[in-house]
Every structure is written in C-alpha cells, then in structure tokens.
Amino acid sequence: MSRFIHLKYEIKYSNFNIPLIQNKNIETLTTIIDFLKTDKADTSISYEDKIVSLRKIQNLVDELKIKRSSFLNENVKELRQKITSNYKKLRISALSLMEYRWNENSHSNILEYLIDYNSFEDGVKVLCQIINDSATLNKDALCNKILKQSYTVDREYTIISGRIDLFVFDKVEKFVIIIENKILAGISETIGEEENSISITQLEKYEKWCNENYADYIRLYILLNFSNNDDNTSLFDKVSYGQLYDNLNNLNSTDNILEEYLLLLNTLLNPVAQDLFKIKKLANKIMKNENQELSLTDYYTLKTIFYA
Q1: Going by C-beta distance under 8 Å and a sequence separation of 6 or more, which residues neighbour residue 99?
Q2: DSSP classification of residue 254
Q3: Pairing between strand 162-170 and 175-182?
Q4: What is the pTM assigned to this prediction?
C-alpha cells in the first residue's frame, strides 16, 4: 500500500489549473474524487480497484502537467516582453522596506513637508486638495486664503489638552486647520481606551481650545484616516488616504520625497503592491533566465501586475 500513499501525496501537492481541464477530464476527476471520499469508509473496494483508480489519478496529473508546461511555454515570452516594457511598475519605496507603511509619525512628518509651501513648491495645492475633500462649506474662501502663502505648519503642536498632529495657522489671513492623522488606529470613546487611538473627548478638547483662542478665525478640523469608517467623529471632517493618494498622484512634480511617498501609499492601498518585493525578485529571475521555472500561480500574479 506504500504506492497508494505515495500517489495520494503526489495528488495533494500537484499544481494544476482547473480551467485547462477538458470536459472528459473533469468527469474523470469527479469520479476519482468520489473514489477518494469513499475509500476509507468502504472496505469492500478491492486492492486491485484501488490501484486502477490511482493509476487514473496519476495519468490525469501527468496530462495536466504537460498542459501546464505547454501553456506557460506559449505565454511566458509575452509576459517577459510586458515586464520589459512596464518595469517601472515594480518600483519599490525604501520607506516600504523600512516598514513605515503603518507608522503614523512617519506619515505625519511627510505630510508636514508636503503641505508647507516653504518645503514643497506645491504645498498650497496639497493643502487645498485636502480641504476640498472635506465636508466644510467655506472651501473656496479658505483656499483663497491659503494661496496667499502666509500660513505656518507645526508638527506635534503642544497645547494644555494634548498634542495636535498637524497645526496649520495663519495670523494674517486668520484661519486655523487641525489635522489629526489616524492611518490605522481607531477612534475610542474615552482617553486611553485603545492603544494609539485618539478619543472623541480629545477631539472635543482640541475644538474647545480653538474656539476659546481663535474665536474670530476660520476653523477647520480634519481627520485623515485609512478607511473613512463610521466612527462618530462629527467634530472632524474625514478625508481618506485613498483621496490623498489620488490628489498627490495628479500633481505634476518630480520632487523626490513626493515620488517616494506615492510608492509608499501605493503599497498601503493596493493589496497586490504589498508583495512587490517578492514579485520584483521573481520578475528579475524571469528576465535573466530564459529557462526560469514558473508556476501558474506566479504567472497569474505577474499577469495581474503587467496586464492590468
């Protein structure tokens, strides 16, 4: 019976693609599956019948392996051409390799750079785009003030009730914008309920502090988060990282920090891009080695990237 066990092992770990199986093979496979389901329970099946069925399994596996090889041989050349002409799609951010995708402080530091016209030439555009994605009613008036380029941007701005992630202040044009960045953590009901979360109570304190100190200013509160979930944060207008990425991607800029950040956001928002490091290594192997062995899983993974 050792051959029986060995064949079962081969079937379990054989790599084949169901759409390539012809109708007759589907019928054969169905029969074999039924046999394997009843094999242990039915002691009336003779040893000879088991051997016949297992030979059918082996023949089917061999045929599927041939079809798989034929399919890959016909398509890998085109895939290699696609990789060559679209290789830039495999650009990887150093920030991703440093595992900064979910690090809120890293994102906040980059956002400080991107919304400040003193560090980034399109800073006013980025800030106005964030405002336009919010639900505030006085978007045009506020953006007109921002275009005057007299505001300042501070990180971890300390007040009595806490530290504001991004504090945008303009004494001349009289506006205040508070941006709280919660890329992953949720919004808790009370202070300290969740690690790395910000409480609604804390948001209320920020609003109260602004109302007391800048009563005659335009005031805007923005919560920048990953999913725009349904947490009760009515005090703050929600803007998602998806909206941020779309707006940054539309900027006509060659700034190196912006380019790196877009790559980071791409890996954050795109599930396929999260495995770019592994995919790039595989693509490089295919480019360098004409005889590189490729599984159907690898083929369709690369096809997802280059044929999209």
Answers
A1: none
A2: -
A3: antiparallel
A4: 0.65
